[in-house]
Amino acid sequence: MGIKEAVMEGMKEAMKERREPDLSALRMVRAEILKLEKSGSHKEVGDAQMIEILSRLIRQRRESIEQFRKGGREDLASREEAEIRALEGYLPAGLSEEEVEAAIAAVMAETGARSEKELGRVMGAVVGRLKATGRPFDAGAVNAKVRARLAALGSSGT
C-alpha cells in the first residue's frame, strides 16, 4: 500500500474514532492531493509527491507553532503538534545524520568546493542525491551543514 492509500485509510479510521486533530491534518493532505491531481501535471500522485506534500504540511505546522507560542497561544500550538504527529506517521523513515553527512562529503569531494561562493552548486547536487533516496530530509538543516563545512574550508584555506 502506498502512502496515498495509507492516508486515505487513516482518514477513514480517524473519522470512525473521532480523532479530530488527525482528521483535520489528513483532510489537508487530501486537499493537497486533489489540488495536485486537478492541476493536470499529475494524473496519479505517487509516493515521492506524497513525501513532498507531507513534508511541506509538517514544515508549515512547525512555523505555525512558533508563531502561536510567540503570541501566547499554547492551545493552538498543542493542536498543531498533534497534527504533526499524525502526519509524521505516514512518512517513511527519514535520512539519518550519517547518511546526510556522507552525501555532503561525497558531493564536496566530487565538486572540489572550497568556498561559500559554491554553496548553490553543492546544495543542488546534495539535494538531488538525497531526493534520489526517496526518503524525507530537512533541506534547511542540510543547507546549514553545507554552509558550516564551506565556511570551515574557507577560513582554513586562506
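The above is record 1. Record 2 follows with the same two-line structure.
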Amino acid sequence: MNRFSPRFASILLIASFIILGFQRSYLAITSSYVAVEFNLNYASLGTLGSAFFYAFAAVQLPVGIAVDRAGVRRTVGMALTITALGSILFSIASNPTMAVVARGLTGAGLGGIYVPALKLFASTQRKDFGVWNGMLIAGGHLGGLVALTPLLLVTVSFGWRLPMLVVGVLTLVLIPPLLWSLHGWQEPLNLQDQGTRATRGGGPRQPRVAASNELARHLLWLLIPYTVIVGHFLAFNSLWAGSYFDTITHWPEATIGLLLSIFPIALALGAPLAGAIADRGLISQSHLTTLGYCGFTLGWCGLLFVDTRMPPWQVVALLSTMGLMVSCTFVVFAQASAILGWQSFGLLMGILNGVPMLSGAIIQHELGWLTHLLADTDISTSSPLWLAFALHACLLLLTSLVAVSQNFRSSGTSLVGDTKEWMRK
C-alpha cells in the first residue's frame, strides 16, 4: 500500500531540522557548564564544539551517494537513529573523549537530513522549492531558539545532561511516522520528471555529464563566499556567541540568553521570506546571496563595537540584521538545484552542504586556538577573543568584496535593476 504523503513527510523533516538546530546550538549555552565538569580550556572547548561539525561535514558525500542510490527513506531513517544514539551517549558521557565521540555521532546523524529533504522538496514542491527550503532552515533556527533561554533554565535547574537525553528520546519517537509517510515514494530519475520516473527512450534526460559540466562552471563561485560566510555564522551561533558577549559585556546569563534568541528568530522569519522573494523573481538569486554576504560581514564588524555601554536594544538590532542577512545566503541551494540532474543530485548537494559545515568546524576550532594563543601574548590589553573576532572581520570583508566583484562581472545587472524589472512585470 502506497502511504506516501509529501507534505506530511516535509513537515516531519522540518521537525527533524528543529532537532538539528537544537543540537547545533546546544553548546552556545551549556559550554561553560560542560567546560567546568570536564576541566576544558578554550582550545579543548573548541575541539568539543567542532566535533559535531567535522562529523557533519565528513558524512555529506556518503549521504549524497546514499540518497542517489538507497533513496531518501532509508537515508533519513539511518541518520535519525545515529542522531539518537549520539544524543543519549553525550548525556551519559563520563570524560571528554566520550563527549567528543558522542558529539561526532550526533553531527554525523544530523548530517543525513538536509540533502534528502532537498531532494524531496525539489521533486514534490518544485515551484515553491525556495519557500520549503526556507521553512526547513527556519525550523532549524527555531530549534536553535529552544537551545537558548529555555535550555539555560533547564540546565540551571537540572544540569546539562537531561536536555540531551530528552532530545535523544524524542528523535527516536520521530523515526516511525517519518518512515511511514515516505513509504511507497517512487523517486524521480530526472530533474524534469517532477515526481515521475523516467523511462528508457521516453524523452530527453539531463545526463550526469551535463550536470557535472554545468556544476563545474558554477560550483567554485557558489562555494567560496558561501563557505566562508556560513562557516563564520555557524562558529558564532553554535559556540562562541555566548562566550563573546559574556567576555565583552559581562551581562547576566539571562540577558545574554535573551539576546542570542534574536538571532534564530530573525533567521526563522527571514529564510522563508528570502525563498519566496527568489521564487517569485523580485531579486535574482545571485544578488540575494551577495546581499546576504555583505550584510552579515557588516554585522560581524558591528560586533567589534559592542561594549558594556551599548544598550541591549542596539545589540538586538545588530543580531536581527545579521540573522536576516544570513537567511538570504541559503538561496544558494536553489541556485544549485536549478542545474543538477537527479542522477547526481544527492552527491552534489552533499558537497554544497558539507564544505560550509567543514568551514564552520575549522573556524570554530581555530577561534578557540587563536584566542588561547592571544591570551598568552602581550599584544594588547583587549580581550583575546575580541582580537580573534577582529582578525576574522578582515577575512569576511575580503570575501564579500570578492563575491560582489564576481556577481556583477557575471550578471552585468544590479539589485536595483532586478527590482525595477520585477515591478514592470
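The chain has a mean pLDDT of 79.
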